[in-house]
Records
---
Amino acid sequence: MSHVFPRHSRKELPVVSRGEGPFLYDTSGKAYFDGSGGAAVSCLGHSDPAVLTAIKAQVDAVAFAHTGFFTSEPAERLADKLIENAPGNLDRVYLVSGGSEATESALKLARQYVFEKGETKRRHVIARRQSYHGNTLGALATGGNLWRREPFSPLLMETHHISPCYAYRGQKPDETSFDYGQRVAQELEDKILELGPQDVLAFVVEPVVGATSGAVPPVEGYFKRVREICDKYGVLLILDEVMCGMGRTGSLFAYEKEGISPDICAVAKGLGAGYQPIGAMLCTSEIYDVIKQGSGFFQHGHTYNGHPTAAAAALAVAKRLIDDGVAASVAPMGAKLVDELKTVFGHHPNIGDVRGRGLFLGLEIVKNRETKEPFETELAIPARLKSAAFEAGLICYPMGGTIDGKLGAHVLLAPPFIMETSH
Ligand code: PLP
């Protein structure tokens, strides 16, 4: 009998034995095409030789040294690489072990920054109903997924949720997509005014929404307006690129396409591409300098911050993505895949929308394509799809949930950037 405490306690799972390129294999030899990189993690596929070599070399040199005593070469070089390739004002990189830790750290950095600046009343966090920011208590409180929050609600800090930018569901027939984006962005200003501008700390948002609704990009102009509103009231803009970052949408950072720059940005998943657990929080020098010149100490920290082996893996991943041009294939391959999905599913009676950016794609599942009416059992349909696809040798990421009181179900696809047309 197994002593592992699994995610699903009533499911028998196959045992994974190896990975190669875009495929995973179980111990029976069955192959699975990793069409979602687990949950948008494995952007380089499996067994990338350059990443494996970098990890082995780092382990041979020194696997771990605590950041209370040392910095390390791979951590320094990874931070440089990220900042060199991050457009806008981001200047410092705080390395953590995963996505939840990155968003949790972002919230705490935001709060410590205003605290040290003397703006001690700033405490309200605003986020969107269509969002997932992680599973630690602060990150969970920030996310808008009711199903994930429900059992823990007495433990969660108060957060304020506004509408998402979800044109398929929210745009009115007589409205342009631009006007729709301005209308939903206006909810941010309204909420700030309602809470009192001096009391609002941050707005946390995924540039392209992942797990809660399957690769939903914003409409044009939405983020520009959001940035303006945040600037007007001194509210920090925290972008959660844990899922959509690191080249997944066709640019290294998803925010590049929006023509804005955040105050803080969280990345993970594709950062280590699954070769090591790692996440990062990037912030502006303005934020960093307030802490440097104030207490001189970010009052946060985990044992595995800046883990040298994880940093070496992420540095090797970044080199593959940027220097070897792997990330450059995302936009053209994504365009081909979306065309193919539209050909196959574009008229399917139960697929309401085919959408996404780069190799971050989503299919919205509906009961009725014309009316967009969802199935009543929003979690059962994705679960059945996941099992059927897995049985057939395809790993994809179907999910369901309730957004703005409406049910929704979707399949998220996030295949490795090394996929080829034949796959
Ligand atoms: N933020 C977003 C947008 C995510 O999609 C996720 C995970 O799916 C997280 C945060 C949490 O990341 P992790 O599961 O690595 O803790």
Note: The mean pLDDT is 96.
---
Amino acid sequence: DTASLRKLDQSHHLHPFTDFHDYAEHGGRIFSKAEHIYIYDSEGHKMLDGMSGLWCCNLGYSQQSIIEAVYHQMQELPYYNNFFNCSNQPAVELAKALVDVTPANFNHVFFTNSGSEANDTNIKLAHRYFDLIGKPSKKLIISRKNAYHGSTVAAASLGGMSAMHKQARGLDYVHHINQPHWFEEGAEEDPNAFGIRVAQELIAKIDELGEDNVAAFIAEPVQGAGGVIIPPDSYWPEVQRICDERDILLIADEVICGFGRTGKWFGSETYGIKPDLMTFAKAVTNGYMPLGGVMVGDRVADVLLAGGGEFAHGLTYSGHPAACAAGLETLRILKDTNIIETAASDVAPHFQARLQEYVDHPIVGQVRGKGMFAAVELVSDKSSRERLAPESGGAVYCRNVANENGLMVRQTGDAMIMAPPLVCNREEIDILIDKLGAALDATASHFGI
Ligand code: PLP
């Protein structure tokens, strides 16, 4: 029963990103079932999943053909590795399928199990590339404040969330510039002027570190866990120009943006970014199996391949046959059903338009979004943008009310964030929006606004 499961969980299970005191006192929900866009806990509560799991179940929870593809693959070849010249059919086919759906300069992939490992791989690829072209001094990586690129030591070093960075003892070859978070940092400035100004912090950082020492800049097209930070239109073209001019590899972390979240297959396409390396994970298997990787653009791949020798890197499960079978079937569904296009042209505009209804809500400071991706900033004073009770957890309160009322959304800082499955229809989006509205009303009245 739930009570004894929860007690065992509290006794033995160390949860990621969970406050240990809070968990010891209150425990949490134990999920036991999922269907379409709904998740059910062991006490029978039904929740609309407005986060697609951890931004990964873009096609919801009932994709039977992915489950069958994994089952079939487990019967044929449950495991073999890809080291030492070995391969397996799903890995080969998924590599080709990924090349087919990614921008034209991507013709190679390196598989990992997760986004974190993929970002570690990016660093090693960038270093190897500059070693091979005779520029070994180019070792430094520039990332952004408040970024999340994963939890391994290297990925957490890339990340710009201060608590995480500190616990990881951030690697000394990673440096950070500001994020293009206009609501937080831009104040009265014109958003596009702000976008250019923040992008140009990259030039200043490259000058400070020395162009001959900088290997790469890494960023998400839209920063997700940092709070769904939608960059001003001016931002990415300026970043791209700087990377091109300064011989800096551009790494797009597509772990959240990839596979349709922002309206196109990849966030890089939504924003016209031309990355040299692209990280993917999560939705590549619809979250059903652990799989990530790096799409290696021709600029880097040509040098690696021409250089010969081995890339001294690999994971026991790189290109795991069952995970790749899940990826292959996920890509087939995405291609055959036009789900990305339908979500972008029909459901996402409805989602974004309905969210805008809350712009005038007394505790809403900003509503921002792109595709099936959105954030609502909570304030106690709309004109001064004073945050809603940050010390007593205004946004946490709002999230808790939403959760209690059957809506899974997240809170980051003072914002409510959402990434519903792309398979939601308009009516399901209406349910999400209404539940969010009820949570906003309850929060306003709780804080007397
Ligand atoms: N990069 C981004 C942008 C992410 O959002 C995440 C996870 O949320 C990661 C990397 C790390 O991926 P994983 O948790 O699969 O290691």
Note: The chain has a mean pLDDT of 96.
